[in-house]
Amino acid sequence: MNQRPPADPPPGRRLSRREALLAGIVPLLAAATGGCDRPDGGSAAPGPATTTPPASTQAPATGEVRSGLVAFGDFGGGEAQPAVARAMERWAAAHRVDALVTTGDNVYERGEPALFAAQLDQPYAELRRTRPLWATLGNHDVVAGHGAEQLRHLGLPDLPYARSLPGLQLLFLDANRIDDAQAAWLDARLGGPEPALRTVVFHQPAWSCSRHDSSREVDRLWVPIIERHRVPLVLNGHDHNYQRFVSGGGVTYVVTGGGGRALYPVDACAAGAPARVAERVRHHFTAVEVRDGSLAVTAVADDDTVIDRAVIRR
Asked: Which segment of 98-107, 263-272, 273-282 scores lowest on mean pLDDT?
């Protein structure tokens, strides 16, 4: 690339996505959809939304569902939180759901322990009767120093930590402190003799084209590890919408931040970003069903409309 990199930004200003790409901080991943089916042609939902995904040309997932989960983020105290919670209950009545997984920003505005019952417990009481809630932490959860209290409230250890479902390992990171120690932990876990199907979960996204954009430090420290191990699925939040990207290496990155708070618009992506193959500005959750050799990912709006569907094969 012959283009001269941009000058360093003034102190305190974050690099824009394009500046980071040109400076070589963000790895240039070829646009591709290898390793992941395109979404099907389900009816598009109304709203301030976006691109209609093309019809799938590949076979749907087959075989027994070994386990399942529902993932959601950026929800605590949001106006649409109850509607998304009820939609997850309806999904769980007809599909296998073994765990609830959050992508962070669980308790607004400052992660106050006095709000744990109202924002973490009560909305999901029915779902949690027989299922654990596994969480990562977002910026709102830790801003006042209550992140550890929230994890203890949920019976969880400090981040990073691992959890397993039949056929799937989930690795939870803390993207509020992106560091070499977590990078080493992630690399060691991904290199271990665990299931071939893995999902990495953290808040600030590896890839996003919206209000917050991608995390420069995630792209620098964690994305190369994720790509090298060809992780099937990465779940993030932070931007309050739904986006799905597929890298040239076949890694699927999903932003699922529509769990209840006010929604954010999506933007055009800078050149060099992975292919964004689906986007929706809708309140939603993301369901994952685990089969031998595949993950079926289904994004479901709060009115039960399927807004995206993909099958990731390994």
From this structure: 263-272
CA dist 157 and 292 (Å) reads: 29
Q: What is the pLDDT of residue 148?
A: 98
Q: Angle 301-151-185 (CA atoms, 0-180°, nearest 5)?
A: 95
pLDDT (tens digit per residue) in 177-216: 999 999 999 999 999 987 889 999 999 999 999 999 999 9
Between CA 190 and CA 184 the distance in angstroms is 10
Residues 53 and 280: beta-carbon distance below 8 Å:
no
Q: Scanning the structure block, which residue is given the tokens 């919670």?
A: 85
254, 278 Cβ separation under 8 angstroms: no
- Alpha helices per DSSP H over the chain: 17-23, 81-94, 116, 139-142, 147-153, 180-190, 216-221, 223-228
- Could you identify the residue written with the tokens 């309050």? 240
77 touches 108 (CB < 8 A): yes
pLDDT at 3 over 90: no
Cα–Cα distance measured from residue 7 to residue 217, given in angstroms and rounded to the nearest whole number: 18
| In the predicted structure, residue 30 carries a pLDDT above the cut 50 | no
- Give the neighbor-by-neighbor strand order of the sheet with 67-72: 133-135, 99-102, 67-72, 284-291, 294-301, 306-313
Q: For 73-112, how does the pLDDT look when each residue is reduced to its tens digit (9 = 90+)?
A: 999 999 999 999 999 999 999 999 999 999 999 999 999 9
The whole-angstrom separation of Cα 34 and Cα 145 is 41
